[in-house]
Amino acid sequence: MTKPEIATAFSNGDFDKTNDFIADDAFWEVVEEDKFIGKNAIADNCNQASQYFKSVTTNFKTLNVISENNKVVVNGTAEFIRNSKRISFVSACDLYEFNDSNQIQKITSYCIQAK
Questions:
Q1: First-to-final CA distance of the chain
Q2: What is the pTM of this model?
Q3: Could you read off the pLDDT of 7-37 as tens digits, one per residue?
Q4: Which of 33, 71, 107, 114 could form a disulfide with 89 if both were Cys (CB 3.0 to 4.6 A apart)?
Q5: Residue 69 half-sphere exposure, CB side, CA atoms within 13 Å?
């Protein structure tokens, strides 16, 4: 997978496709919400998110993917529906920094939940 493909898959919740591309000492910050240090902590959070995604209908839309050298930015939206009713809508922007081994070294996520 290319860096933009890896980043887009992660941003769209396709974590099973991206696990091999996360560095052991990776760092993920969801600004003003949480921080995950190390591949295992990131994988644990992804597993929890995947369980949530299975409990709802998800509609991810990727709006832009910008890539330069070892950095990729993905922005888009996520809509979560249960029983035909929207329960959440998020606008997000994720900045990925890759190491020289083509692995995600750092993720900075900005998530804005609709009121």
A1: 36
A2: 0.93
A3: 999 999 999 999 999 999 999 999 999 999 9
A4: 114
A5: 3
